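ASSEMBLY PREDICTION REQUEST
Request ID: AP-0331
Submitted by: J.K., bench scientist
Number of chains: two
Total residues: 518
Priority: normal
Notes: Please return the full assembly, not individual chains.
Input sequences:
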Amino acid sequence: MGRVLLRVAYDGTNYNGWQVQDNGRTIEGELNRALTDIAGEEIVVIGASRTDAGVHALDNIAVFDYDGPLPADRFMYALNARLPEDIRVQNSYEVTSDYHPRKRTTIKTYEYSIYSAKVELPIVSRYSYHTFYSVDVEKMREAAKYLVGEHDFKSFCNVKTSATTTVREVVSIDIDVKGSMIVLRISGKGFLYNMVRIIAGTLLEVGRGALTPEDVKKILDGCDRTLAGPTLPPCGLMLMSITETEDENSNISDEECVD
Amino acid sequence: MGRVLLRVAYDGTNYNGWQVQDNGRTIEGELNRALTDIAGEEIVVIGASRTDAGVHALDNIAVFDYDGPLPADRFMYALNARLPEDIRVQNSYEVTSDYHPRKRTTIKTYEYSIYSAKVELPIVSRYSYHTFYSVDVEKMREAAKYLVGEHDFKSFCNVKTSATTTVREVVSIDIDVKGSMIVLRISGKGFLYNMVRIIAGTLLEVGRGALTPEDVKKILDGCDRTLAGPTLPPCGLMLMSITETEDENSNISDEECVD
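STATUS: Completed
Returned structure:
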């Protein structure tokens, strides 16, 4: 029995998220269907980040067990021949049989893209959130500093979370500007449900002047979701990478829900 | 009677090009419909670049005549409230009544994006052409030099062109690389039908080693469409800008067909 790892990129626009649901197509569902077709027996993947409906990914990870004749490195080709065009396996290779993508200590990096202009731009609207407001990026950077580090992010978590603890470590938040596009790049050791989208929504409130950078410190300390800004829409969110860290002490449970 | 100019951005994926056709939705058709709705009388725009089916634009130009009460600068809002989401008027303002967008000397800049990797990437596939080949960009740059300047581009023109002359001036070709994405930026005083997509297809043949840079000189001199590379698909092409030049001697006829 071998375990195979898939590196998966997708445009999440037309999917009801990663995880198999009663209703709607999902990334996991499409992978399971294609793998079952290849293997001739039911295969169910385990994903690293269970991204929400409409969220995109450059490099999500899934693993599955397989003991048939197809070499691990051929799965990418067999899968891409069977998957819809908006899901593409970028690589496939064998890992050890105890490899569980949600029980490893990793740094996940997400980007949230905000397009700030008086009119929407069609060619960016599929992968960004449009705001009519002009945005003070320096103020957003000031506010972001309060969020870096290990904190209780209860204020920045969907109240429907099933997480046993709302303490998480944000490793870095960088904010780049290119023309009218503002890109928040957030790295952390696991995120709470909707956490990146609520952080983006709160920092945008700061950028447009509805909150001060210091308010973000108060929101964090308040541990109350109603204090923070809105959850921005999923289209602006992209899972960029999942990187293994040296540190082997993962304290993030398997029940963690990810943005 | 006033003439109003529109700066129009669109995702061309779902359109049968700019120009009104017997079949299918077009950018011009959507503008005419929305303007007629606003004005209460039939309005037909004149476009600067009649982009082909599936081609995108950041900044195309259209003008129309109107003598009603709505100020020119309000048309952008009235139109965006009525247009499909994948067309957005970025600006609207009054111009002189003799302003004809295809009878002015302008520099048009197009970008053609080629994604070179062993697997497609869903989040870029809407706006780029995927090639499995690895590409030697330096060789493409060498080849591109032969195309800059005033030449007979008959080899780089769809044989169905109605143009009276196939002589055009290419002002510059720059090729940028960002990761696996290769972006050809081509500026010129008007282009022939499919010219940018055939140039991109021919330069890609050079990049992958099927042609030498010197072959491009021979192809240009041969004045025969069958010598050049393939017409790359429209999804990779984007009209970036149309800039007025000092030079008032336009020799590009109104019948010109544009990529």
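REVIEWER COMMENTS: The first helix of chain B runs from residue 27 to 39.
SIGN-OFF: pending second reviewer
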